[in-house]
């Protein structure tokens, strides 16, 4: 009997080790950059997170069956989190694309499957952690954050390239191992407050190493803050300032009995006020504007293009909410809302948004009022737990220092999420903080002996084996096909031996049929577009590739009938290959889904002219122009079409703002006039542009000289080219060649 008990104890220790090890592995996933996977900054981290959580949960289930003390601690946060996950599952099931809502895609790797993993992680953590483990976990995470910050410094000083390929310097926006500056900013925001939390805890304890710990935590705060600033992420910077100010004010008001805490908090408040004042007074100084993050802060304005785009996205999201107010559209479905309620004033922004860039509106779209209410309840219940939880003796569970710092963290995180969206690293950190609050507020529960344990070793072993088998089954089902498809896709777009292999590999990746299928199908279109201009590629193969690409887009249209994207891609591809009649039907479908998106209208207008339907083309260009008259490209195409239709009076009227901005010197306008042999019109127009903007690029001077030459005015053509020499001394050699051709009469006008 003793032997059985001993073996059972050993099994329990082994399972507990696996669970704790899994929890302590997660802080390291931020370091993963999987160059062997498509979307290397996203997929490697997420696949690792899922597998680690699945293994951890399997071991925890067996552990909880063996010992009741490892079963979930009942808390309000656990209940709200469970309700939130259940509500989002309902939203996803009845949303517009349930499959994508559940699985997401390679670019985001969120969806309900990630939400469920986060809840599972939360449940395990609140069940097994101890005060000592919490401290070690936070310390380990801080150590990793310091490493990430140092990597960011290497980017700043130019030793390591930025994730998007740019160089370092004071204007750089650091992204470290996350590949996105906003993701890095959120990651640093959490760790600054975690370091402050541990620092505060160390000062509440009497130990000899307090000074060394203070130095360590203070150094991490300084390092992480420096890197956060150089991400240039304004929402996170303001969130940090606001969160720190809130935490400090709370301490100033409520921590009068703690002299050190009160002094530190007062110092932070004064520093924020003084530095804020200095920044305000020097906001126009050249030295300040040369530093990237300071320049971005100084240029915050309601007229800023990014700010305008945020507001327009929020407005579109609100329209989507009104259509599905209770349970929303399901996860990963903002793209459908964006298409349907597209604001034409978004013309200068990304045309295929899949996030609102505001977490409140994102969850409102995902889960309607129910989902958003439960998401907000996570913050409310966390704060209530912080401030109301009491020990058995009636005192507060959380000292005032912890309450203030964690309140500041939640406030700062909430604020930054008004302008960005989450990723796996911020999700993990947020859930970890929630679990910490839930664990502490629920109180410790002693390990029970005797009856709470599984009394027989064979039964314990059976439970453990079943749990492990379930883990392997879940891990295989959740990850295997997606991982295989991801690798197949990367191989398909990376190999350069022959295009036949590309096509075959893409087919194989598509046939796997996992959650990256949309991205695989879009790569068909990308490659088909790229080979269009390669003369060495046989025309028969081009036809085969385009046929496969269009077929894949048709399948995507069936899977996503409310998205304009696949229809537009198919139509644009066919149009580029000259299949204008076939292209029209796809482009019309895209227009029916997103009727106010100028990108689609302009492509339809170009298609109409290619088919010889001038009247339809004029109508489409006019519609696109009138949706947002400030959109220069739409105006240029409308002007070019009017030139073609010989509507010269209207052309002169529409050209005025283009001349003022220098955009009138556009090759599409020139081509329309060349078609009519109206070189005099080009000359007159280009003369106005150069007179208003002598700094115009050298090609504008060349176009004017060519127009004067074609009009028989060689003298003026040479004068223009001499002016070009003075404006562009770096192009003198090329200009002299042109002058020689004008003088000899050998210049060619195309």
UniProtKB/TrEMBL annotation:
Keywords: Membrane, Transmembrane, Transmembrane helix. It is found in: Membrane. Pfam families: TPR_6 (PF13174), Wzy_C (PF04932). Residues 221-376 form the O-antigen ligase-related domain. GO terms for cellular component: membrane. The keyword Transmembrane applies. It comes from the Bacteria. The keyword Membrane applies. The chain crosses the membrane at residues 17-41, 47-65, 77-99, 111-134, 141-161, 181-199, 211-230, 236-255, 262-282, 363-384, 396-414, 420-438, 459-478. It is a multi-pass membrane protein. Its main location: membrane. This is O-antigen ligase-related domain-containing protein. It comes from Candidatus Kaiserbacteria bacterium RIFCSPLOWO2_01_FULL_50_24.
